[in-house]
Each structure stands twice: as structure tokens, then as C-alpha cells.
Specification:
This protein has 135 residues and is mainly alpha-helical. Helix content is 50%, strand content 4%. It has one domain. The protein has a two-stranded parallel sheet. It starts with 21 loop residues before the first helix and ends with a helix.
């Protein structure tokens, strides 16, 4: 991303985000930006599977029920990541991307992760990993 990109907004919206460099688009397209998180997994700060970390601004909007997702170690992938692979495209089509994220996308992603928490298992995690890689 370009210098001070966080001051221009926290959501990456579609393929025409002026904050992202050409190299950044390539890195994101092929998910190479996720590789450093493997070090966090090795350190024990993250899991391979678990609710994706969220920006504090949006975490502050969670209901008490939604805050349950914070009880698990964050992960590199989760059911919401699979369901919302096209999140940037959805946000790009919205007239108000941030409001759309807050009112539609975020609650849906949180619900998927709450369902994951209620039913999580080793084999379920393996399935999520495969869906992330090959889906």
C-alpha cells in the first residue's frame, strides 16, 4: 500500500483502490500477503483456522454475542473468508462500501464464525484449509 493509506480508509474496495500499488495488487491477488502470518502461527499468536482478525474500529461495533469470536486465537482462514472471497468486488459495487460492510458483510461473517466456534473440530479445520487452498 502507499504511504499513509490508512488515513484514506480502512476497507480495500475492488480493483481500483488508489492506495494499493501495482506490486500490492499482485501480492494480494495471489495471497502472498498472507505468508508472513505463518510466522505468527509458528509463534503461537495465530492459528491456521480461526476467526480472521478485524480492525479495532469494527470490533468496537460488535454486539456482546459477536464478541465471542474474540475468545479464539485468530486464524489465517475461516469460513467467512471462504464465503466472502469476493468481498472486495461486493464492496466495490456498493454505493456506500463502509456502511454496506458494517450492516451486511460484517454481521454475516461474524455469524459464520460463531457457527464455526459452535461446531469446530480437527476434521472441520482440515476441510476449511482445503476449501481455502482449492476452493
Amino acid at each position: 500500500m502507499r504511504l499513509n493509506a490508512d488515513r484514506q480508509g480502512l476497507l480495500t474496495v475492488g480493483g481500483k483502490d488508489s492506495r494499493v500499488t501495482k506490486v500490492g495488487y499482485f501480492i494480494r491477488k495471489y495471497k502472498l500477503d498472507e505468508l508472513p502470518q505463518l510466522f505468527n502461527v509458528l509463534k503461537g499468536d495465530m492459528s491456521l483456522v480461526g476467526p480472521r482478525p478485524e480492525v479495532r474500529k469494527y470490533v468496537n461495533l460488535y454486539t456482546p454475542r459477536q464478541q465471542q469470536v474474540l475468545s479464539l486465537r485468530p486464524g489465517i482462514t475461516d469460513p467467512a473468508s471462504i464465503a466472502y472471497r469476493n468481498e472486495n468486488d461486493l464492496l466495490a459495487r456498493a454505493t456506500d462500501p463502509e456502511n454496506f460492510y458494517i450492516t451486511e458483510v460484517m454481521p454475516s461473517k461474524l455469524e459464520l464464525n460463531l457457527q464455526y466456534i459452535a461446531t469446530r473440530s480437527f476434521f472441520g479445520d482440515i476441510k476449511i484449509i482445503f476449501q481455502t487452498i482449492f476452493g
